[in-house]
């Protein structure tokens, strides 16, 4: 019997099939954790994901599930479909299987939304670019602020300096701890809480200032940064002289031997990039206290606001040295509204929070 496509809302039964398929390729990853899959696909504010499954003899041999998020495009809220978690069982992988699943998923995503966006991983990137003939509208760049110099170098070069490295780590970690305390004289603070009206003012300002961005509604933020299982987040509201001017969200992840702290989301609207230095130094101070090796930020450099926020004291990382490239694919239907087709998606406000990578 030839493989067939099944399309249905995600539920607990399909989640079990999702986990069974994941276990054929991944072990000990968040994608193997029922709590993570339930959070990602059953609890999102716009409802359960749409499960697009490649079936063979009643069993799921491939899948790509579609989340729906609210984006702001030209000041108007639109539905953006994000197909994620693409996987085909190894013994069923073929060009026919890929094209069948991919085309079916994109067709279903377009039918449920105003636009479709996604990224790729090292396995799917060539498939998307060469077989599906997709061209990214943008690509995230990476920047870092070193904290424990020897450990960061060991992760990137495999050179272990032994006791000398530990001494260097202890010394270099003192620098962000001192500078973070000094940065408080700017009047900028990282506060774990803010009133609903203060929060809404920040996200509304971003939507007014940016042509393309996630709406970052209260419901979306509560869901996105709730996390599950081993995935946890820490959110701070950025205050300057007591007034909320933005927010930042971080998450810890060990990557290729480096204990990283990642800035997953950052919203600091208005002409306030000059205040970002104090924010970065205070984030680095907290990361140093937690024993992290570096602070990382992935962002769309083609967005002027994000490019300004990623200035000093961050160091830009060459794309060839990133552990994974993060292209941004956006597909707008030909019959979309004029304000959507005219939008400059290349300059969109894209950071890690917009994708399923962390």
Description:
- This protein is α+β, with helices and mostly antiparallel strands and 358 residues long.
- It has 2 domains: 4-118, 3-Layer(aba) Sandwich (Aminopeptidase); 140-324, Aminopeptidase, CATH 3.40.630.
- It is built from 11 helices and 14 strands.
- It has helices at residues 12-23, 34-42, 95-111, 125-131, 149-157, 163-182, 196-209, 218-224, 276-289, 304-309, 338-341, and strands spanning 4-9, 50-56, 59-73, 76-88, 115-118, 138-146, 188-191, 212-214, 234-240, 243-255, 258-267, 294-300, 315-317, 326-331.
- Strands 1, 2, 3, 4, 5, 6, 7, 8, 9, 10, 11, 12, 13 and 14 form a 14-stranded mixed beta sheet that branches.
- Helix 1 packs across helix 2 (34-42) and helix 6 packs across helix 9.
- The longest helix has 20 residues, at 163-182.
- The radius of gyration is 21 Å and the shape is globular.
- It starts with a strand and ends in a 17-residue tail after the last helix.
- The mean pLDDT is 91.
